[in-house]
C-alpha cells in the first residue's frame, strides 16, 4: 500500500500525578531521519523511542516531541560533594597560615562556593514510566501511519490519472508519426519545385530518400516504446505492498530522459507541443513521487 511521507500523530498518558504528551510529525526526506526533543530526565529512553518508530516507518524526516505536565517523574535529592568541600576548606586554611589571616571559615562562606551541592534525580517507578511512554509513542506512530496511508491513497489516484494522461499523449504521438512523414514528402517536393521553377520534375526516388533520411533522424519509436514500458513499471510499482518511493523516483527520471530525447528529435510543431505536455505531466509526477514513502 502506497504511503505518503507526511503525517502527524499524538497521544497522552498518565503516570501517577504526571501527564506525558507525545507528538510525532513526519515530512519528506530521502532516508529515515529521526529527531527527538524530550526532557533531559527521559534521555535514557531516546534510543528505545527511535526503535519504535523504525519498526513502522522506513523513510521521512521524523520529529518526536515529548513534554511533561504535573509532578516530576523523578524525586530530587541534594547531596554534599565532600571531596570538593574538603579541598575548599583545606585551601582556605592554607591561605590563613600563609598570610597570617584572621577570621573563621563559616558555613555561609562554604555554602556559596561552586559545586558544593549536587542535585540528583531518583526514579519513582522506572518500569511504569517506560511502558507508559513507549505505549504513547506506539499509539502516536499508529495515528501517523494511518494519516500517511490516507494521503498515500490520494497520491495514487493523482499519479494514475497522470499516467493515463501521458498514455493519451503517447497514442497521439504514434498517430502523428505517419502524418509527419507524409508532410516531409510534400515539403521536399514543394522546395524542389520552388527552386526549379517547375522546370524539372522531382525525382521520386530522391524525394523518398530524403524523406527516409529525415524520418530516420526524427524516429522516436524506440523512445515511445521505452516510455510505455516505464509507465507499465510505474503502475506495477503502485500495487506493491512495500516502500516504493525510491523506485518510483528512478522510473520517473527514466521517463523524463525519454521525453527529452523525443523533444530533441522533433521538428514538427504538433509533436513538440505534445512533448511539452508530456514533460509537464512527468514533472508533476516527479513532484508527487517525492512524497511517497
UniProtKB/TrEMBL annotation:
<dbReference type="InterPro" id="IPR013551">
    <property type="entry name" value="YicC-like_C"/>
</dbReference>
<feature type="domain" description="Endoribonuclease YicC-like C-terminal">
    <location>
        <begin position="175"/>
        <end position="293"/>
    </location>
</feature>
<protein>
    <recommendedName>
        <fullName>YicC-like family, N-terminal region</fullName>
    </recommendedName>
</protein>
<keyword id="KW-0378">Hydrolase</keyword>
<dbReference type="GO" id="GO:0016787">
    <property type="term" value="F:hydrolase activity"/>
</dbReference>
<dbReference type="GO" id="GO:0004521">
    <property type="term" value="F:RNA endonuclease activity"/>
</dbReference>
<keyword id="KW-0540">Nuclease</keyword>
<dbReference type="Pfam" id="PF08340">
    <property type="entry name" value="YicC-like_C"/>
</dbReference>
<keyword id="KW-0255">Endonuclease</keyword>
<dbReference type="Pfam" id="PF03755">
    <property type="entry name" value="YicC-like_N"/>
</dbReference>
<dbReference type="InterPro" id="IPR005229">
    <property type="entry name" value="YicC/YloC-like"/>
</dbReference>
<comment type="similarity">
    <text>Belongs to the YicC/YloC family.</text>
</comment>
<feature type="domain" description="Endoribonuclease YicC-like N-terminal">
    <location>
        <begin position="2"/>
        <end position="155"/>
    </location>
</feature>
<dbReference type="InterPro" id="IPR013527">
    <property type="entry name" value="YicC-like_N"/>
</dbReference>
Amino acid at each position: 500500500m502506497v504511503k505518503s511521507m507526511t503525517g502527524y500523530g499524538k497521544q497522552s498518558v498518565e503516570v501517577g500525578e504526571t501527564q506525558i504528551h507525545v507528538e510525532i510529525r513526519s515530512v519528506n526526506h530521502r532516508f529515515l531521519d529521526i529527531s527527538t526533543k524530550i526532557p533531559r530526565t527521559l534521555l535514557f529512553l531516546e534510543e528505545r523511542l527511535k526503535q519504535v518508530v523504525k519498526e513502522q516507518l522506513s523513510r521521512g524526516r521524523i520529529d518526536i516531541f515529548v513534554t511533561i505536565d504535573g509532578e516530576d517523574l523523578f524525586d530530587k535529592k541534594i547531596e554534599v560533594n565532600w571531596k570538593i568541600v574538603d579541598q575548599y576548606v583545606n585551601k582556605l586554611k592554607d591561605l590563613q597560615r600563609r598570610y597570617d589571616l584572621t577570621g573563621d571559615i563559616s558555613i555561609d562562606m562554604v555554602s556559596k562556593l561552586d559545586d558544593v551541592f549536587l542535585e540528583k534525580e531518583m526514579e519513582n517507578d522506572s518500569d511504569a514510566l517506560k511502558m507508559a511512554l513507549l505505549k504513547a509513542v506506539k499509539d502516536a506512530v499508529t495515528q501517523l501511519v494511518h494519516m500517511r496511508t490516507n494521503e498515500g491513497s490520494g497520491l495514487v489516484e493523482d499519479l494514475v490519472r497522470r499516467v493515463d494522461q501521458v498514455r493519451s499523449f503517447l497514442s497521439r504521438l504514434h498517430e502523428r508519426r505517419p502524418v509527419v512523414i507524409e508532410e516531409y514528402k510534400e515539403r521536399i517536393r514543394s522546395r524542389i519545385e520552388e527552386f526549379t521553377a517547375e522546370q524539372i520534375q522531382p525525382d521520386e526516388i530522391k524525394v523518398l530518400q530524403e524523406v527516409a533520411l529525415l524520418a530516420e533522424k526524427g524516429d522516436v519509436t524506440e523512445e515511445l516504446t521505452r516510455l510505455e514500458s516505464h509507465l507499465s513499471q510505474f503502475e506495477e510499482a503502485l500495487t506493491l505492498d512495500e516502500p516504493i518511493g525510491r523506485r518510483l523516483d528512478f522510473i520517473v527520471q527514466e521517463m523524463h530522459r525519454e521525453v527529452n530525447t523525443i523533444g530533441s528529435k522533433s521538428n514538427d510543431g504538433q509533436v513538440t507541443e505534445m512533448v511539452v505536455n508530456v514533460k509537464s505531466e512527468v514533472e508533476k509526477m516527479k513532484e508527487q513521487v517525492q512524497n511517497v514513502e
